[in-house]
Amino acid sequence: MSTADATLVPITQRSWLTPSRMAGLALLGLLALFALSGPLLVSVDPSEQDFAASLAPPGSDYLLGADHYGRSMLARLAYGARLSFGMALLTVATAAVPGILLGLLAAWRGGWLERVLDLVSTVLLALPGLLLVLILLAFAPGTFGPLYLGLALTLWIEFYRVTWVTAGGVLKQPHVEATRLLGFGTSYILRSLVLPEIRPILITLSAFAMSTAIIAISTLSAISVGLRPPTPELGAMIVELLPYYAEAPLHVLMPGILIFLLVLGLQLATRSDAR
Amino acid sequence: MGSLPSAGRNRMKRLVLARLLQAGLVMLVVGILCFVLVRALPGDPAMRIAAGRYGPDANITEAAEQVRRELGLDQPLLVQLGASLGQLARLDLGHSVVTGLPITKELRIQLGATLWLSGSALALSLLLGPPIGLLAGLRRGGWVDNASLGGAIVLRSLPPFVLGLLLILVFAMLLGLFPPAGYGTWRDLALPALTLALGLAAVSSRVARDAVAAVARTPYLAFARLKGLPEAVVVRRHVLRNAAIPVISYLALQAIYLIEGVVVVETLFGIPGIGHALVHAVIARDVPMVQGTALAMGLLFVVIAMAVDLACHWLDPRPKRT
Amino acid sequence: MNAPVRFQALTVSDLAISAGTTTIVRDVAFTLAQGRPVTLLGASGSGKSLVAHAIMGSLPTGLSAQGVIKLDGEDLLAGTPAQTRARWGRTIAILPQEPWLALDPTMRIAGQVDEVHHHLHGFGSAASSDRARADLADVGLAGREQAYPHELSGGMCQRAAIAVTHAAGASVVIADEPTKGLDAALRDGVVERLLQEVEQGRLLLTITHDIEVAAALGGMVGVMLDGALVEFGPAEQVLEQPRHDYARALIAASPTKWPASLLPAAGEAVVSACGLSKRFGERPLFDELSISVRRGEIVAIVGPSGCGKTTVGNILLGLVAPDRGEVERTAGMAPTRFQKLYQDPPAAFVPHQTLRQSLGDLLKLHGLDWMRAEASMERFGLGRELLDRRPSEVSGGELQRFAILRALLLDPVFLFADEATSRLDPVSQKDVFAILIEAVRERSLGLLMVTHETALAETVAHRILKLG
Which superfamily, per CATH, for A78-261? Predict the structure, then answer.
């Protein structure tokens, strides 16, 4: 229809809290509760071995069964979830803070800073992120340091670019010029004009970066270059249990399901509605 | 009129040039990191470089002395780096420290497996994703749209190795249809290719659906209908090409997922490709091999991205807005 | 050319359009006849485009039409959707608004005409392409068959769209805002094209907000307001002696009909510049330009789009630096006393702030009194309920008046109005200028206006500077 007559048709405002967001937040809440309180409730050491219970099925003495060493799956999963959450949060925070600040600075000042940062991000983006992380892991396989560094190094770029493009777009708009002509200063423009525009997209991006970090850490551990057993890391648990998949397929899948739920929760919680 | 085709050719040149530049950057990043790596690992770097150059079977102490003299490890680091990058630019990749074989020879063997896997995964994903997206986009809110949305959300929450594991459990263990690992026949390739294809199609189906939905809202589609064309002609002549542009240009981003997925899936399914070799080289700290395989995967990514650029250029005559 | 079927008349009676239970257009009746085109005039949101789509049978989902639309005895509203669709192109064609957006951007224009011959009329591929070439030559696009829409000007795209309707063979043509986005010179060309359609025996309905277009097309003119046809009659009668209040206001809103504004003599210069030069990339915009604006004076810069007239104003405000030249402003004046009005009113407001928030922040910043702002609102005819809306929920005219209010609160000495009324309907334009002229008179404000409408500049300004 013509845009001219669009005002005739009433529009309904949709609420921010869509059913999918609600489901995602609820899922994340449950997982966080599990990760934080699981170890307290079960009060079992995730490294305590009980060979009598090796590969015990869920339900018996152990609520979710026990692994090949007879360690409680519940305790290990709770620690694993906590570890995944924690490492991902640390990585994303390390990437987001400089990324957003540099993005704002580049959008605001432009000039050589913008060109240098653009060059740096182009260089880092030339290689798929996982390859960069893998090369860094060759320095010290099996440790969190290079994993953390490599992931943060690839993830900050997205924060930088999105902030730079969005904030740059806002700053070019006439209403910023109008606001400045009316006498408002830089801090008002950043706080009241730019921030509200970039906040939603940065929240989505953070959730996306969290998913990327969770998947990358568990994947690299699952292919034996990330964290190594006996650390109760979800990916490492899978490789450890993989030889027993014929006897205990459910045990192998459990850490995978937990990763799936974590990422699903993050996705749903920040999903924008289909147009 | 006469200047237009040449403007198009200029744009194509720029696209190719940008990707060649990216290829150069891939070499630079990989080269520098591996240069640092070789000197950062514990032990005598000359020894490691010698082993990387001539293979572990060579008379290593003598070779190490020769390396020390020749590279002048007492020389400034920048000079050493220049020499090392020069070697890389000539594609002189050295020998694997583990097997002693020349890296280029190893890569040539591994490349076949990697290309088969990535090619079939990409083809399979294009057979699945865009057609589903088209159906969903033409009937927004219909059952295809809703089902494919649910499927895409679930698939995108599954890391490739978990998805691969699920497929092994269902198709290899439960149904016994395909072998769980191995390499040689097409049946070996089925599960790994499907693992990657499902992940790719989860995204491309949604990109296609949104692209079709966006085209459906354009004034030019309304006009195509209003000028009297039957619906099938409208879809065939106006929806398909215009919606294909974002789907194909998105493939450049999906190439990242593909390359990363190939590394993981090859390792999981035991396919003797470049990604598999990279992971094992990292574990064994076989630096020349890490460098060679990372370079090969990085360049494969650039080649795919360049092909995508050229396809978009051919489909979309409009000048790029910057 | 296909052997055309020509119709005698298209009669619309008792037409109403509703969204669910709410009626948004009602009581529309008129007749299109051979040699007597109909033009519907009205502001945006008056429902005139919906009438066009009701005739076409292409109303957006959720809207439905009631009443009778007869084309030589056949009721168009009575048919099935399939019958309606079968008429598209073959019987009734719509000339889209902004045709550069209505042509497929990835297909050469010959292909877009060609496919009509091939798929509508079943011609072979060679015959179709010959016919397409002839259709394009007919509208003066010979030699441009292989061009893509982005390689053509707006006027050329308009003609390519006309070639498409000719190819389809329609005898009823509906032109929906055919001059939207075109400047004056191109506008006359489009009107001429439309008159040719009438001469060739097609029935023509034109939807426009432009009185000049209605006058040039002649025939019958209808005026729409809030979804109703408030006036209908021969063009001369409606345009010269309108009976309905709104129609009268609309006609009187044409700048040529405005009463002369009585302005006192101008005072000293508030801003002046000499020897200004600016280039945009390789292209010089202007060279050695001198301009000054005095207190109580209205200066207009007139010129086609892209000639750099906005840039001149921005240089005077200090928003853009000239390549060469000097700008001098009255000494000791606070920077906030130099203000600007924007072409697109919503773009000048923070989109997520309600007007109350943005006004409140401004008053707080400058230590101004809320009561004073409210008094001005009343004077400018702005209801208090507007304060709790966001910019996108306020009409363009109201928002522009609000922008003036906002600027006047800072007691400006210089105001730059950048095409400030070009997106407004004529009545709103007149209101905005009434306020501006009053401010110039009462506050000895120096006003610099940039416009592409010569008639407007001639009516309002003391001095006119032509660029480009």
Answer: MetI-like (1.10.3720.10)
